[in-house]
Design brief:
Number of domains: 2
Number of strands: 10
Mean pLDDT: 94
CATH architecture of the largest domain: 2-Layer Sandwich
Helix content: 25-40%
Shape: globular
Largest sheet: 6 strands, mixed
CATH class of the largest domain: Alpha Beta
Structural class: alpha+beta
Radius of gyration: 19 Å
Order of helices and strands: EEEHEHHHEEEHHHEEHE
Length: 281
Amino acid sequence: MEKTYKIKSYSKINLGLKVLNLRPDNFHNINSIFIEVDLCDILQFVPSDSFKLKCVNKNIPLDNSNTIVQAYKILNEKFDFRKHYEIIVDKNIPVGGGMGGGSSNAAATLKALNKLNNLKLTNKILMDIALKIGSDVPFFIEGGLKFVYGRGEKIKPHMFSLIDAIYILLVFPKFSIDTSWAYKNIKKKLQYKNYSTKFPPLDSNVKWKLFENDFEDIVGSTYPEIFEIKNILYENGALYSGLSGSGSTMFGVYNDKIALKKTKQLFNHYNTLIVSPIQRK
């Protein structure tokens, strides 16, 4: 009898995020550095007579709007699976937090089904399929530390020799951000072209404060508490502090574990978590 298969669906933070312009296909061109981190959902694939989706601990949609459903249907339509699975999601990545939970779930589903059905699809093919589901999904096929541009489909490895020496404090505000709302409200910022769209190199002399996320002003105008969180992180030893994606998760990058743990205690009115980057070869 086939055993239950488990896969970890990791999250990401954005070290800087520049929204450049609106494309003819109504997506936006971006520049960003994605860092995969070890906060993850767990997806279990239980052999079943038909496809089912279940979430054990959060109220998430289980219909066609769910990226897991979309990923399953795309592959099933293409390969007409003879065996099916009930997918059970243990959800830990915040919904509407800008950490790519839905995108990661879709990528994890594609990878799991590729393995379970012995489809032998290359990562390049999986990434092409992933883009049909969402702009951030291709990144999660390989994960790691990447420079991401275009609408999210152009991905290059990005070196950072000190990646194993940093720690990340996540701070989760009590509100969530709808990505479509954030992009609709960023149009005004796109009218101004007099700012840099490049990021400083990630070397031993990295200039952390040159990284910027264009969504911070958008989200902060409605939820100014993100600026309060940012200031507390900076005042307590963060090398960098910023918004992940379009929010609402805020994070601080540290190279001092003692300062990191002390800062975490200052946010006892928020949910917080210390995470580390996922390093991949």
